[in-house]
Amino acid sequence: MRSSKTVWMAALAMAVALAGCKKDYFDKTEYEQLISDSMPVDKVEGSHNWTLTITGYVQVTADVSGTARVQLLTANPYESTECEILADAAVSEGRSVMLYYIIPQVQETMYLVALDADGHYLAMVPVARGQRTAYFRGELLDLTGTLHAPQKQTFFYCFESEFPQPGDWDYNDLVLTVNKEPTDDAHVVRLNVTLEAVGTLQQLAAAINLDGYSYESVKEITTTTGSNFPELQTSVPRMFIEERDILLRGRNGEAVINLFDDAHAVFYSRTTQTGAALRGYINTSRDGRADGFTRGAQTVSYLITFRDEGNAAQFTLADLDPFIINNYNGMFCEIHTFPYKQRQVLKEYMGGYSSDYIDKYSWALAIPYTWFRYPLEGVPMGKKRGNLIGGAYCRTPNTFAAWLADSNDARDWYKYPTTGVDGSVY
Fold first, then answer.
1. Among 90, 259, 373, 420, which residue carries the largest CB count within 10 Å?
2. Main-chain dihedrals φ then ψ at residue 62, nearest 5 degrees
3. Three-state SS across 279-301?
4. b vs e for 83-107, b when ≥16 Cβ sit within 10 Å of the residue's Cβ?
5. What is the C-alpha to C-alpha distance for residues 117 and 385, in angstroms, rounded to an integer?
6. What is the pTM (predicted TM-score) of this model?
7. pLDDT tier for residue 348 given thresholds of 50, 70 and 90
8. How far is CA 47 from the centre of its chain?
9. Higher confidence at residue 21 or residue 35?
């Protein structure tokens, strides 16, 4: 995020209808033009939904002797070093289990493996996207060679913190990663949440809305350590999320995970003389800037206990709506990924005119790739203005700009950082 405001901010302030203002003051056309002019690309498809994934399910029958669990993978782990676990469930020999998954739109084939009680592979078969049933018969794949240990499927959630203003579109003002794993309790899902970076001097809060799950459907949410993300225990009041409880009730009865009220305080144990958290650009720069710092990523593992074990069985990363909260001229704004852009889960801030902010732009991205590298400070995710091409993901033809211009193009752009990656991504 830029550390200083640009000159057109006065114009934007005139265009945006803030809380308490009359609707007559809002010029939606002018506002959208200001956002468009700030974007580092010529074109954003009018119907773009900024989504890179699709969801599905497959019923698996464990018809292999000795089977104790099954896993659904993104790749053949004997052939690829980049293999993710999409779904993982215990199942006894001869029984069936339903596996629910979320995969990149470009993924056509998955791989189903049967494991014994010690985690050894017993059999592996390919599974086509959209296939509804699977068995370990027919085309069994070879289980010889070097096994590359699959990783838990991890999503990156990358935010611009300036909403409703334009940002610098590096999408590193706050970066979260999230993955899930099963537990021995059929009612419990483990969710591992990591704060990777803070690329702004603003105070930002964060929470996760469990989309489609009511507050009443969740019995409790605890952590494996008994503590949430570390925050300053000072006389300074919490700004955005007053409660310290981990499980919160949203404005419309949603189940919400309360992550933190101040991202900088998660990284810093020291404070200023006033008791506030120290501010800096954390894990977003390598140029030795005075306000740039390197800190170890901070992880908390949440144990979500559902009242109905069926909810736990069906729960995937597709059910997550992580969001951040900023302070824009005294108005607390939630910033969600595009499918949830109009949500006001904890804060009502649109003055009753949420339709005014329905447009084709997004201040947040959900990246379905465990090995993603987010841009360095001030480097846009992608740039294409006329013949000017640049940014962190501009390797032709798999560019971020190409995907924005046409949602059916370059749908795996996030795998192709610009050549000379250390100069553009962290």
1. 259
2. -85, 75
3. CCEECCCCCCCCCEECCCCEEEE
4. bbbbbbbbbeeeeebebbbbbbeeb
5. 56
6. 0.92
7. confident
8. 21
9. 35
